[in-house]
């Protein structure tokens, strides 16, 4: 019986570690990612193309009753991207919230003065009305999110496989077929690094956005 109890405890520890976001996503202060971005818009056959590079860094944590808020700083390293202030680009500098086994982008929901969630974001969180970006562990077939932003882990479609850099061929593919106003968003996540590639395609007016990881350091 003692050995059974020890085995169950060991299993619980391993399972807990597998679900701990920080064993997947290195969100400690000092972590830094450099990304290349490309935005195409207008005529799909002759699109306007804008390219730029950014550096994203974790600057610190704030512990609150709902979990850990991960503070981020994003700096533009090359010209371009100034005209793109939409949902995907704007939220890149918003803090993350580690809440349970999930990670949320606190888009407009962090009060810098009080260092707390805004009442509206807190309400959405308590009602499960805001979608996490990631819920761990990332396993094939797993799904989470809301009707407005559903996510699932699945093999990448052939039409988007080319957006993943070869050095991250083992990255996990996460897909949403209804990001906000109806866009398709493909995200590739490498355990121990984070987001290594993303491709967004708007269903309607032509907008296509990609970002790929150039480098990561801690």
Strand tally? 14
Structural category is alpha+beta
- The share of residues in helices is 10-25%
Per the principal axes of the C-alpha atoms, what is the gross shape?
A: globular
State the name of the first-level CATH class.
Mainly Beta
CATH topology label = YmcC-like fold
Mean pLDDT: 89
Oligomerization category of the chains in this entry: single chain
Low-confidence stretches: 3-15
- Architecture in CATH? Beta Barrel
Please summarize the sheet with the most strands: 12 strands, antiparallel
CA radius of gyration: 18 Å
Sheet-strand content, in percent, reads: 35-45%
| Helix and strand pattern | HHEEEHEEEEHEEEEEEE
**In total, how many domains does the architecture comprise?**
1
Strand order within the widest sheet?
Answer: 8-5-4-3-2-1-14-13-12-11-10-9
Please count the helical segments: 4
The CA-CA distance between the termini, in Å, is 44 Å
Textual characterization of the structure:
It is a single chain. By secondary structure, the protein is of the alpha+beta class. The protein has a single domain, classed as YmcC-like fold (Beta Barrel), CATH 2.40.360. Helix content is 16%, strand content 44%. The chain has helices at 2-19, 21-24, 87-90, 119-126, and strands spanning 32-43, 46-64, 67-76, 96-99, 102-105, 110-111, 116-117, 134-135, 143-145, 150-153, 172-179, 183-190, 194-201, 207-217. The strands form two sheets. A twelve-stranded antiparallel β-sheet has the order 8-5-4-3-2-1-14-13-12-11-10-9, with no helix packed on it. Strands 6-7 form a two-stranded antiparallel sheet. The longest helix has 18 residues, at 2-19. The protein is globular and about 50 Å long. The chain starts with a helix and ends with a strand.
